[in-house]
Amino acid sequence: MRKASPFLAGLLFGLGLCLSGMIEPGKVLGFLDIAGLWDPSLAFVMGGAVLVAMAAFRSARGRHTTLSGGAFHYPEARGIDARLILGSLLFGAGWGLFGLCPGPALVDLGFLDSGAALFVLAMAGGMALAAMLTAEPAAPSARPEWQDG
Predict the structure, then answer these.
(1) CA distance 74 to 57
(2) DSSP alpha helices (H): ranges in the chain?
(3) pLDDT tens digits, the chain, 149 residues: what are they?
(4) Contact call for residues 25 and 100 (beta carbons, < 8 A)
(5) Is 146 buried (19+), middle (13-18) or exposed (0-12) by CB count in 10 A?
(6) Count of CB atoms situated within 10 Å of the CB of 119
(7) Whole-angstrom Cα distance, residue 86 to residue 98?
């Protein structure tokens, strides 16, 4: 069950993305085009997602283990900082320019979508760059005995 429940949760999430149209960049861009031919249907999808998340977070409050038995890790960060703002801006820019965000892009890979593959490669490159830029420097190692002259 430890491996099945995350798989089933991911499968349910992916199916929800497919059924709601979130994997179609044109539909997402239509939602974001409030000055043009606005498509409000994704607002209902997001509203439903917020309601489900609220219920899930409420039921998880106070738990120490996940439903599959693993350790439950609550977020430690509480404040709004430059890193959060920059990440939000980058996420929004990617969503607005391409009509994709990480979840739908990964689902689209399953449909062998070359645009999604390019998006995921760029996303992975950005994640690798962010990891390199935010990595803490390695602690200096002790000098070997033979160098203690």
Answers:
(1) 10
(2) 4-20, 25-32, 41-60, 82-98, 102-109, 114-134
(3) 677 888 888 899 889 889 888 888 888 888 888 888 888 988 898 899 899 999 988 988 888 888 777 888 877 888 999 988 998 998 888 888 888 888 899 999 989 999 899 999 999 998 899 888 888 776 666 555 555 55
(4) yes
(5) exposed
(6) 24
(7) 18
